[in-house]
């Protein structure tokens, strides 16, 4: 495989889209309050205790995770193009969805069930659905962007 065939600008744009989707998905008016409560935790108030370094680690880590996921998907799509040179946005979105569900989502199911702080499997399922829902949406959109941007 020739990594120079990967459109790295598309990877960058797709990773930014994933980061933005994550910001909206876990926003204070969307899934964040439901997600945090399902973990048996309280929605924290802004107490000013988070340092700049901690914020950089959290947001930098979130972006790095998005970038690695999208770059990996780009490699998979490039390999798929060997079998189907006409691969486009629809096929990219489909493959992003398949890998998001098949590998991304279900790789973490047992971790969530057995790692749930409150020990409630129904809460664990709710937390898992919120978390992996975002991953699946992000990878589907990333696959669309990378597949369409040839």
Following the backbone from N to C, one meets helices and strands in this order, namely: HHHHHH
Radius of gyration: 17 Å
Q: How many beta-strand runs?
A: 0
The average pLDDT value, as a whole number, equals 92
Number of domains: 1
Structural class: mainly alpha
Helix content: over 70%
Shape: globular
Question: Largest sheet, if any?
Answer: none
N- to C-terminal distance = 17 Å
Number of contiguous helices: 6
Strand residues, percent: under 5%
In the predicted model, the low-confidence regions spanning at least 5 consecutive residues are none
InterPro entries: DUF1761
Protein name: DUF1761 family protein
Keywords: Membrane, Transmembrane, Transmembrane helix
Organism: Rhodoluna lacicola
Provide structural commentary.
The structure is a single chain. With 150 residues, the chain is mostly helical. The protein has one domain. 74% of the residues lie in helices and 0% in strands. It has helices at 8-25, 32-38, 52-83, 89-107, 109-115, 121-148. The longest helix is centred in the middle third of the chain and has 32 residues, at 52-83. The radius of gyration is 17 Å and the shape is globular. The two termini are 17 Å apart. Keywords: Membrane, Transmembrane, Transmembrane helix. The chain crosses the membrane at residues 6-27, 56-80, 92-115, 127-149. It comes from Rhodoluna lacicola. This is DUF1761 family protein.
Indicate the topology.
Blueprint: H1 8-25, H2 32-38, H3 52-83, H4 89-107, H5 109-115, H6 121-148
Helix pairs in contact: 1-3, 1-6, 2-6, 3-6, 4-6, 5-6
